[in-house]
Design goal:
The chain has 379 residues and is of the alpha/beta class. It contains seven helices and 17 strands. The chain folds into three domains: 209 residues, 3-Layer(aba) Sandwich (Rossmann fold); 53 residues, SH3 type barrels; 80 residues, Elongation Factor Tu (Ef-tu), domain 3 (Beta Barrel), CATH 2.40.30. α1 runs parallel beside α2 and α3 runs antiparallel to α4. The radius of gyration is 22 Å and the shape is globular. The two termini are 41 Å apart.
């Protein structure tokens, strides 16, 4: 798995301060660089559809970001290319997102994008232009462990910027050819470095939104996208029920709900009610009290292992698990529960374990692996 790379590095340039600082840092170290930006989504594509803005500013992968990335490459005097991956992005990220959401699950497009598109395509393009490695602005660390003969992915020095939750799907090959130069740095120092390099993006705000969903309004995007495809919004209207099966209301579609949601239920109640679970087959949405959102059990499939080659039948390991990006990793026992399925039992109940979200397994700062939260197997 270990190899001797050549000196040319392809830098994934998003137009933000982090990837720009990476390019400036590597340039100052004397590396031969090529800047690459993936063009993933036409921000004006759904303009004019009901509820969608005419133009979108200040988000990941926008036209403005491409302009900023190109300008940074000019400032650093490095070759720069834009790689059009809009068709693949729609097939591998947007369409699965739509399908998952319509099925009552809450997917994470950024993880899908990293797993299935960004790193894979960046490495392919890098090789085509003579670069053996890529560097990104992600806050993460990786190294080769001789004793295990595996590449290890770890949380960064700045835990507040940790992005390993979105990177659990990286393969050993991808990790072996990827550099994370910001892994040892704190975010304020990165901005200082960008400023000292004279980069105009040094004070640019971080992008927070999903690149193709303005304002985080999933429902409006779903309707606009399906309208563009001449597809009707599926009729998933159904009942709002309690955990005992009592019908206490009706809803217009399961795509309007996510586990843990409180607002928008259309119910009046003495005590606050939350979405506990969504049932795509029956179109029922179960609601209940906040304390009913807590569970010790998590099931995950579509697994990828990093620090270990696999989890064998009958083996148990102790890990900390993140069930959301901002979730504090919680201690659990992890075991195999079937083919491409694991079962985690948390030491303490966790709130809103949500099907469709990523679950990432850690041992201290190392990423053991991860998978996608799914419903418990039917007995």
């Amino acid at each position: 798995m270990s190899h001797e790379p050549n000196n040319t590095i392809a830098v994934a340039m998003s137009g933000g301060v982090d990837s720009s600082a990476v390019a400036a840092l590597l340039r100052s170290q004397g590396h031969e660089l090529v800047g690459l930006t993936l063009q993933l989504w036409n921000q004006r594509r759904l303009a004019g559809h009901e509820g969608m803005p005419e133009a979108v500013q200040g988000r990941c992968c926008s036209i403005d970001d491409v302009y900023d990335a190109r300008h940074v490459a000019e400032q650093l005097d490095i070759p720069y290319y834009v790689v059009n991956q809009q068709e693949r992005f729609e097939a591998d990220v947007v369409k699965p997102f739509v399908s998952e959401y319509l099925a009552g699950r809450t997917p994470i497009p950024c993880t899908l994008c990293n797993n299935h598109l960004k790193f894979d395509q960046l490495l392919t393009t890098a090789r085509q232009i003579g670069a053996d490695r890529i560097a990104t602005g992600h806050y993460a660390r990786n190294h080769f462990d001789e004793s295990r003969q595996r590449w290890i992915l770890s949380r960064p020095a700045d835990h507040s910027k940790d992005q390993t939750y979105f990177l659990f799907g990286l393969t050993q090959e991808q990790l072996s050819r990827t550099l994370f130069p910001l892994g040892e740095m704190q975010k304020p120092a990165v901005r200082v470095m960008a400023s000292e390099a004279g980069l105009d993006v040094a004070t640019k705000p971080d992008s927070q939104e999903i690149c193709f969903i303005p304002g985080g309004d999933y429902n409006t995007f779903l309707k606009a996208y399906l309208d563009e495809q001449n597809q009707p919004l599926p009729d998933t209207a159904g009942e709002l029920v309690t955990t005992t099966g009592e019908v206490i209301g009706h809803h217009q579609g399961i795509q309007s709900f996510t586990v843990g949601q409180r607002k928008g239920l259309g119910l009046t109640s003495t005590n606050p009610l939350y979405v506990l679970s969504i049932h795509p087959d029956s179109h029922q949405v179960t609601v209940g009290a906040d304390e009913e959102l807590f569970s010790r059990d998590l099931y995950a499939n579509r697994l990828n292992w990093i620090s270990i080659p696999d989890l064998t039948e009958g083996e148990e390991i102790r890990v900390s698990i993140k069930i959301r990006h901002r979730h504090t990793p919680a201690l659990a026992t992890l075991r195999r529960a079937g083919d491409d399925l694991v079962h985690a039992i948390f030491d303490e109940p966790q709130r809103a374990i949500t099907p469709g979200q990523s679950s990432v397994f850690y041992q201290e700062d190392e990423v053991v692996g991860g998978g996608w939260i799914t419903q418990p197997p039917k007995i």
